[in-house]
Design brief:
alpha/beta, five-stranded mixed beta sheet, about 25% helix, globular, binds zinc ion
């Protein structure tokens, strides 16, 4: 249960993607990983560990083997979760309330954000000595709520109410004129309000994670998708088993909005990093590409467990359960990258790690979601498998997952990174 508790702490301290990456950096530095900034020429030694980042929301970390590498063993996950972005000029006055104007980032279950304490986290930019600099912001107190309409005022609420993101989902901030939202943000960022040049601020739910169930079977927490996999990959990479490969973690931002950003999986981030590593090792383009041929990618993003009241929503013969082990995902139209060879490789790794695996397909009449594996492979074309940990209520403000699956996942990553 220690790992599960550590995960809940990691999630609590990571209210935005900026904080996820900042907390990963802290853990990696303690574990002896050296930071190599993008845009600098890199010096890389065998036997050492490194990381780089893009936009402070995506991060790639890797461990060098003791001698010449056979390829890259990459595991990927995403740093973002659905949330509400606070708009520019956010204060909306009306009656007794000042509300904050927001818009959706990703596809959350709207109703789950109602009637619970919320706050704000992200970053602002200010003028620094070398141009624009960023400052993390975390208003670490109960600040906001999006109140439901009373059942007496809308009898249809329990029959499937259609929430309007602009009308129903704005949180109340305060009652009357006084300190502005910008002034409050500046205070928490440690800057003056008129120093702020730009902002990326998101609502987050204040609820801490819980371990629940008669025998502590389950975790309940915000952002389990995909911080459970991010955290697991990080722990696997830190295990520092000797390897013949370059062991690599690639954490991408913007998966929830299609990955098509400078720092998303549909960018050159991963291919750039592989090129710069090759350059630092004195490899030519062809030599590096040959090394990539012998590489492998595990794309890790949480999977749907069978819902206790809605078994009919799951595929008839592939029904992942919580605490049932790592889920291997398959898709006829190749939204998931697993095939006979890569699923076979994954199953061998599971066997070696002494853990169970299970399988996921969408029902044939349900479109299902997508993830970053196939997008990443379109840029760096290596054999790849899509996996995840089973959870319930994906994209709810509070999600539920098995409390034992994370240990299995870390065991799997440790074996993978020890190849
Ligand atoms: Zn996800």
């Amino acid at each position: 249960m220690a790992t599960a508790k550590d995960l809940l702490t990691f999630i609590k301290e990571s209210p935005s993607a900026f904080h996820v990456i900042s907390n990963m950096e802290k853990e990696l530095s303690i574990a002896g990983f050296h930071y190599l900034p993008e845009g600098h020429k890199w010096d890389i030694q065998y036997g050492e560990s490194y990381y780089t980042k893009r936009n402070d929301t995506s991060l790639i970390a890797w461990r060098m083997p003791e001698k010449e590498a056979r390829g890259f063993h990459i595991a990927a996950a995403h740093s973002d979760s659905p949330a509400f972005l606070v708009k520019e000029n956010p204060e909306v006055a009306g009656g007794q309330y000042i509300r904050l104007n927001t818009e959706k980032y990703g596809g959350m279950i709207l109703s789950t954000w109602l009637d619970r304490p919320l706050s704000v986290a992200g970053r602002v930019s200010i003028a620094g000595e070398n141009g624009v600099e960023s400052r993390l912001v975390h208003i670490d107190r109960d600040l906001l709520v999006i109140p439901s309409l009373a059942i007496h005022m809308e009898r249809k609420l329990n029959a499937g109410y259609e929430y309007n993101a602009q009308k129903d989902m704005l949180p109340i901030f305060t009652e009357k004129e006084g300190k502005s939202f910008r002034e409050l943000v500046a205070e928490y960022a440690g800057v003056e309000p008129d120093e702020i040049l730009g902002q990326e601020l998101y609502l987050y739910v204040r609820d801490e994670g819980h371990i629940i169930g008669r025998d502590e079977e389950w975790l309940m927490s915000p952002r389990l998708d995909d911080l459970q996999c991010v955290y697991g990959i990080l722990q696997g990479l830190k295990s520092k088993k000797p390897s013949e490969y370059i062991s690599m973690a690639a954490i991408f931002h913007n998966e929830e909005v299609g990955s098509t950003t400078r720092q998303g999986a549909d960018s050159t981030f991963l291919s750039d990093v592989l090129a710069w590593i090759g350059e630092a090792l004195g490899m030519g383009d062809g030599e590096r590409r040959r090394m990539i041929v012998g590489s492998f990618l595990i794309s890790a993003d949480n999977a749907h467990g069978v819902h206790p009241a809605h078994k009919e929503k799951a595929d008839p013969t592939n029904q992942p359960v919580l605490n049932g082990g790592v889920v291997i995902k398959f898709h006829g139209n190749q939204k998931y990258t697993s095939d006979a060879m890569t699923a076979g490789t994954l199953r061998l790794l599971c066997k070696e790690a002494g853990i169970s695996s299970q399988t996921y397909h969408n029902r044939s009449d349900i479109a299902g979601g997508s993830t970053l594996g196939n997008i990443s492979v379109s840029h760096v074309s290596v054999p790849s498998v899509d996996i995840g940990l089973a959870q319930l209520a994906m994209h709810s403000a509070m999600e539920t997952a098995g409390s034992r699956d994370l240990d299995d996942f870390i065991r799997l990553l440790t074996v993978y990174y020890g190849k």
